[in-house]
Amino acid sequence: MKLLSSDISPRILPQRILKATAGKLVLLLLAVGLVVTLCDSAMSQEPSPTPQPSPGKNVAEKSVTEKSATEKNTTQKSATEKNATEKNSAEKNASEKSSAEKNATEKNASDKGTAEENSTPAATNQARSRRIVTTETPERSEDITRNRLETKKDPTAAVDKTAAHPELVALREEIESASTPQEKLRLRLSLVDQLVAAGRKQDAINELHSMAGEEQFDPPGFYNIANALARLGDSETAITTYRKAISQRNGRYSRALNNLGVVLIRLGRWDEAYDALFSALQFESFHYAEASYNLGRVYAARGQTDLAIREWKRAVKVDPDHTAAAQALAKAGVTGTVRVASSYRAGKSQPAGTAMTSARPIAKSTKATSSSAPSNPQPSSPRDFTVDAETYNLLQRARNAREHDRNEEAVQAFRLVISRMGGYFLPANLELAYVLITLKRNDEAMTSLQAVADRDGSYYPIVYFHLGRLYEFKGEMELAERNYEQVISLFGQNNPQFLLELSRVREKRGNFEGALTSTEAYAKEMERMGQKPDWTDARVAYLRKRLADSKATPKK
């Protein structure tokens, strides 16, 4: 009130206003005093109530409690969200790491020839020649005709072995929890590698058998499995698995065809190897260095040196760093090649086919034995094939037609070469026979092959193998047996597969003793090479039983 009275200046306000204001102030002070007196009197007369918590305090405490609970919940929620975020982040990082590792692993696998390539094969020939199955172990030869025998494992022994390698247990747990088939395949292949490293080769093969037997669409996966089987020496299952991958690509899988051809070469199944490798080259427009090198090996094994050199030259042209092809060329030299001599004149040629018509079929006009050479062979110096330029060009034209499946054109060109050379020219006769076999003109093929057998059979014993196959196809088992015996006597132990051909024909003829002898010889040779197939013991036991039964049965 003092503040109010001091702020009003009596010199500014009129006297009347000042008096009225002062009166109002007095009345106001009296009223205030009366109110205070009444309140004091009321408070002295009322009993003191039981102390109760102040509503304001309860609200405050409740507010504090709710705030604390809210903060606690918020903190817990924040912590939960943080943990979830960190977990998701960790899972994402792990997933990214796993994906990165998977990509890196698949890339490495592709570099080793065990994964599917995305680039065109023609653009990666040089890399391919360094990562195929074949050149890693070209000397290995495993049989592919056996029936797969599943190995029964002792569960107790398996547990003991696994306990000694806890990393295998961890890897198997990863396999079980793999989220995609591709990831599972990668981990199982890694398991195979670890089993091999632990000295458990058979367990590794059993794992691969399980993988190869699965029914799913995965051409690169089956290709990888087949590579692993081939490296472990299980050629039969490798071949089956390669063919499974190829089939899923509708036959157009050049890498798998190449590796299939290599395994077939090891087994001496040269015709099948030729088909696989030739198909691989056709799909790549003959710009696949490794397939050319391997096809050259087939030609060399069959005695077709000129064609072998042709393929090795093509391999080096496509991939100048292909050392295996370069080494093969250096060893081959010019022996067995067809060359042009400017001074050469074909002379007065006999009518086309004269020499072939007059050739004496060994199987029909002579009685060749397993230990005798062809009757009166007349070698035509197969180490030196010299022709005139026109004949040489005609021969190349025939070969090119064959490469591009113009087989009828190839037949006509080969016949012209033979005619120009007086009715017989070893390279042309041999190649003509192969084209005719492709066209299923077997009688004509046999005539051409027999001409080679009569003149150069000692130099090219492979002709007896093909004659044996053709006679077997015709059902003339005696002639088939003679020709198989002939090729074995000339090739020696270079191709044990011929012994199986002979065993099969002898069994068909009821000669179980001879079939048993051939099979035992095959098993012995494969064992010497360290590649004895599992099925041979069962085959030997079967033939022994058939032999015993035949002896027990009285002849009519």
- Spatial shape: elongated
What integer is the average pLDDT? 73
Element pattern in H and E: HHHHHHHHHHHHHHHEHHEHHHHHHHHH
CATH topology of the largest domain: Serine Threonine Protein Phosphatase 5, Tetratricopeptide repeat
Biggest sheet layout: 2 strands, parallel
SS elements, strand count = 2
**CATH H-level superfamily title of the largest domain:** Tetratricopeptide repeat domain
Write the layout of secondary structure elements.
Blueprint: H1 2-7, H2 15-45, H3 55-111, H4 125-128, H5 155-163, H6 166-176, H7 181-197, H8 201-212, H9 219-231, H10 235-248, H11 254-266, H12 270-283, H13 289-301, H14 305-318, H15 323-332, E1 338-340, H16 354-358, H17 362-365, E2 385-387, H18 389-403, H19 407-420, H20 426-438, H21 442-456, H22 462-474, H23 477-491, H24 497-508, H25 512-528, H26 535-552
Parallel strand pairs: 1-2
Plain-language structure description:
This protein has 556 residues and is mainly α. It has a two-stranded parallel ribbon with strand order 1-2. It folds into three domains: 111-289, Tetratricopeptide repeat domain (Serine Threonine Protein Phosphatase 5, Tetratricopeptide repeat), CATH 1.25.40; 334-488, Tetratricopeptide repeat domain (Serine Threonine Protein Phosphatase 5, Tetratricopeptide repeat); 493-556. Residues 1-13, 41-72, 94-160 and 345-382 have low confidence and may be disordered. The protein has helices at 2-7, 15-45, 55-111, 125-128, 155-163, 166-176, 181-197, 201-212, 219-231, 235-248, 254-266, 270-283, 289-301, 305-318, 323-332, 354-358, 362-365, 389-403, 407-420, 426-438, 442-456, 462-474, 477-491, 497-508, 512-528, 535-552, and strands at 338-340, 385-387.
